[in-house]
């Protein structure tokens, strides 16, 4: 569908999250190659949001969109808010060609200013404790998998919802048979559980997949 719309001139840029929030899907080599191919053949601008890069499991490997070299119309955005549990710090970085990054900086400087000390704190940490970071991510991913194992079984037992196995991120989704996502959320609330309706993540809110997480 995306390829058809790009070839028809209807789409000139896309933002993709990999691993994906909220499903936890990790893009395959074929999926990444397809996007890079469109970037090359149709000058499609592609932004890869990779803020969950360090939160992957089930033997899945991250396919880097910049492994083969940098391109003006491909940007990889990465950060530490999720894996380091410092969401309010909003510290991260973008990787692309020098010209693209300079253009981004001209746009960002008047609009958004990072809190400087947090950047220095993370730089100090990564400069001295890289092994600790690797160990932290390993333990974090084991914890996420164990939490999902427990929660998915509990939700299936209590509500009859079918868990959709994630390969990354810190989210999980379920297929349900309730009338709507909102009805599923209301049923969960009655049991004292707060969840998010899956349709808020999809553009076609009139006909969304019946999932919540």
UniProtKB/TrEMBL annotation:
Protein name as catalogued: Aminotransferase class I/classII large domain-containing protein
Cofactor(s) required for function per UniProt: pyridoxal 5'-phosphate
A GO MF label: transaminase activity
PANTHER family the record matches: ASPARTATE AMINOTRANSFERASE
InterPro entries: Aminotransferase_I/II_large, AspAT/PAT-like, PyrdxlP-dep_Trfase, PyrdxlP-dep_Trfase_major, PyrdxlP-dep_Trfase_small
Organism, scientific name: Alexandrium andersonii
Any GO BP annotation: amino acid metabolic process
A matching Pfam family: Aminotran_1_2
Keyword list, A-Z: Aminotransferase, Pyridoxal phosphate, Transferase
Family assignment from sequence similarity: Belongs to the class-I pyridoxal-phosphate-dependent aminotransferase family.
Domain Aminotransferase class I/classII large, first and last residues per copy: 8-202
């Amino acid at each position: 569908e995306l390829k058809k719309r790009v070839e028809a001139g209807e789409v000139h840029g896309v933002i993709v999250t990999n691993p994906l929030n909220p499903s936890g899907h990790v893009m395959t080599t074929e999926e990444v190659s397809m996007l890079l191919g469109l970037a090359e053949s149709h000058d499609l601008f592609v932004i890869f949001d990779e803020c969950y890069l360090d939160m992957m499991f089930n033997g899945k490997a991250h396919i880097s969109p910049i492994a083969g070299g940098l391109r003006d119309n491909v940007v990889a955005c990465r950060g530490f808010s999720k894996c380091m549990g410092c969401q309010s710090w909003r510290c991260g970085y973008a990787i692309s060609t020098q010209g693209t990054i300079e253009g981004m900086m001209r746009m960002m400087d008047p609009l958004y200013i990072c809190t400087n000390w947090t950047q220095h704190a993370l730089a100090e940490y990564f400069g001295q404790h890289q092994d600790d970071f690797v160990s932290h991510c390993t333990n974090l991913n084991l914890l996420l998998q164990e939490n999902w194992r427990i929660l998915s079984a509990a939700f299936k037992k209590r509500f009859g919802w079918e868990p959709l196995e994630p390969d990354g991120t810190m989210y999980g989704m379920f297929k349900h048979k309730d009338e709507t996502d909102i009805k599923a959320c209301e049923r969960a609330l009655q049991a004292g559980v707060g969840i998010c309706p899956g349709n808020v993540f999809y553009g076609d809110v009139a006909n969304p997949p019946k999932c919540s997480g």
